[in-house]
Amino acid sequence: MIGRLNHVAIAVPDLAAASAMYRDVLGAEVSEAVELPAHGVSVVFVALPNTKIELLHPLGEKSPIAAFLARNPSGGMHHVCYEVEDILAARDHLKATGARVLGDGEPKIGAHDKPVLFLHPKDFAGTLVEIEQV
Predict the structure, then answer these.
(1) Which one of the listed residues 61, 83, 130, 132 is annotated catalytic?
(2) Whole-model pTM?
(3) Which helix (H) or strand (E) holds 44?
(4) pLDDT, tens digit, for every residue of 21-66?
(5) Distance CA 102, CA 109 (A)
(6) Is the C-alpha dihedral spanning 120, 123, 127, 133 positive or negative?
(7) Are 56 and 10 in contact (CB under 8 A)?
């Protein structure tokens, strides 16, 4: 069921500084910032040969990333995203095995314009997991 690692998301308190660090210090290809009001975030994508890093910054006070940064002022890893072929089949399998799907259980369109779901971190060794249909 689980496919390749799509991205690792890192919440950052300063999107410009984090982008510059990945671009200037690590030599990575870094996208321009994209605002995603429906998700309450601004996002920068860092392209790597085998995956992506997604830098997340809150867009508004009600952003889930604002709450994360309130608990972790320096930022940190927010979630990992795995690809799945069929998100509904994956959801049904996960629920049947006891995993908790966050929200109403229906896929939303994510930052890559593809359906996504999030899984409860308590079911995955303390890690928030996103699944994305490819």
Answers:
(1) 130
(2) 0.94
(3) strand 41-47
(4) 999 999 999 999 999 998 899 999 999 999 999 999 999 888 999 9
(5) 14
(6) negative
(7) yes
Rg (CA), the chain: 15
User: Exposed, middle or buried: residue 38 (CB in 10 Å: 0-12, 13-18, 19+)?
Assistant: exposed
Annotated catalytic, 132? Answer: no
Task: Extract the tokens encoding 131.
Answer: 């699944």
Spatial distance between the Cα atoms of 75 and 55, rounded to a whole number of angstroms: 10
Cα gap 122→85, rounded to integer Å: 24
- Chain length of the chain: 134
Q: Distance between CA 117 and CA 50 in Å, rounded? A: 22
* Topology of the domain covering 5-133: 2,3-Dihydroxybiphenyl 1,2-Dioxygenase; domain 1 (3.10.180)
Instruction: Determine if residue 62 is left, alpha or beta; phi over 0 gives left, psi from -120 to 50 gives alpha, anything else beta.
Output: alpha
Under 8 Å CB-to-CB from 49, ≥6 apart: which residues? none
